[in-house]
């Protein structure tokens, strides 16, 4: 999976089995899941609007799309092992008409495979966590009238999950990410926390289990590789690439193996980082060839 923000739109790109409650939703094999920002006074027809947007980006039919009036700089991305959750949120008017801009959109991505029933159960798990988060914040409603959830997993991955309730490996990660991420997304949309770009959080077990927001500004570890390195991709969009020239499988503290690439500097090279910004779907082999020419 690759994700990037372009033209007020979050794109997730890959080979997905996915389920969506959003515009033209359902269950399907798709290459793209997107979340697009519309104007606050948007009165267009959602299906047609998404069709035109998708066509401009060369997408036809094999996508799921969500609409929001929340600016993508308020997007929160939360990574918990093999699960990544994307949240945009606004709750100013939870009983407004369907065209109102106040929406909570949640996209869940799993690097591991889920059967269709697990995809649907993930929607239930994410919705329950959303309701709990809103209750914890003091709201007296479980969501807005236009909320949507999309769930995508890698097709035919080695590990298959058949359930996604809160006691499962998938469900507890989704629940934790939404419960933590929704208040963070609302804080950004409401101006309590100011960021100029989407916020990225990772679930860390170092020093006790907790969420950490990564910010390249004033990073205490800079430079962790070499002077002048670029840190736009401190958390690599190619992970886990499984390219043994760039990393290796290492023992996890929880058992099993995880992909370790702490020594990889590929996306820290300024020329490659700039290229990746311009071409966010560039293949790893393409980036390595560029590295060899620099």
What is the number of E strands? 14
Helical run tally: 5
**SSE series:** EEEHEEEEEHEEHEEEEHH
Shape: globular
CATH architecture of the largest domain: 4-Layer Sandwich
Reported by name, the CATH topology of the largest domain is L-amino peptidase D-ALA esterase/amidase
- CATH class wording of the largest domain: Alpha Beta
Helix content: 10-25%
Strand content: 25-35%
The profile of the biggest β sheet is: 10 strands, mixed
- Can you tell me the residue ranges where pLDDT is under 50 for at least 5 consecutive residues? none
Gap from first CA to last CA: 26 Å
> Structural class given helices, strands, pairing?
alpha/beta
The domain tally reads 2
Rg for CA atoms? 19 Å
Task: Output mean pLDDT.
Answer: 91
Describe the oligomeric state of these chains in a short phrase: single chain
Summary, kept brief:
This protein has 294 residues and is α/β, with parallel strands linked by helices. The chain has helices spanning 46-56, 116-136, 169-189, 270-278, 284-293, and strands spanning 2-6, 9-20, 26-37, 63-68, 76-80, 83-89, 104-110, 113-114, 148-154, 160-161, 199-204, 210-214, 248-251, 257-260.
């Amino acid at each position: 999976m690759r994700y990037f923000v372009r033209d007020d739109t979050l794109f997730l790109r890959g080979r997905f089995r996915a389920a969506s409650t959003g515009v033209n939703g359902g269950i399907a094999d798709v290459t793209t899941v997107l979340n697009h920002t519309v104007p606050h006074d948007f009165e267009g027809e959602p299906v047609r609007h998404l069709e035109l947007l998708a066509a401009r980006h060369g997408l036809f039919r094999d996508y799921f799309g969500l609409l929001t009036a929340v600016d993508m700089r308020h997007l929160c991305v939360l990574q918990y092992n093999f699960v990544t959750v994307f949240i945009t949120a606004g709750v100013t008017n939870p009983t407004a008409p369907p065209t109102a801009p106040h929406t909570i959109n949640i996209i869940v991505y799993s690097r591991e495979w889920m059967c269709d029933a697990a995809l649907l159960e993930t929607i239930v798990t994410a919705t329950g966590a959303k309701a709990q988060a809103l209750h914890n914040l003091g709201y007296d409603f479980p969501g807005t009238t236009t909320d949507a959830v999309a769930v995508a997993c890698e097709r035919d991955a080695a590990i298959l999950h058949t359930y996604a309730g809160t006691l499962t490996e998938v469900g507890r990660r989704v629940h934790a990410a939404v419960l933590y991420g929704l208040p963070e997304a609302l804080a950004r949309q409401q101006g309590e926390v100011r960021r100029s770009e989407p916020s990225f959080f990772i679930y860390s077990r170092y020093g006790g289990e907790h969420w950490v927001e990564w910010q390249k500004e004033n990073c205490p570890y800079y430079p962790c590789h070499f002077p002048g390195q670029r840190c736009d991709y401190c958390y690599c969009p190619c992970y886990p690439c499984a390219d043994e020239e760039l990393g290796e499988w290492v023992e996890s503290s929880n058992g099993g193996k995880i992909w370790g690439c702490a020594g990889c500097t590929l996306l820290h090279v300024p020329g490659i980082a700039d290229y990746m910004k311009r071409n966010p779907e560039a293949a790893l082999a393409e980036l390595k060839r560029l590295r060899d020419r620099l």
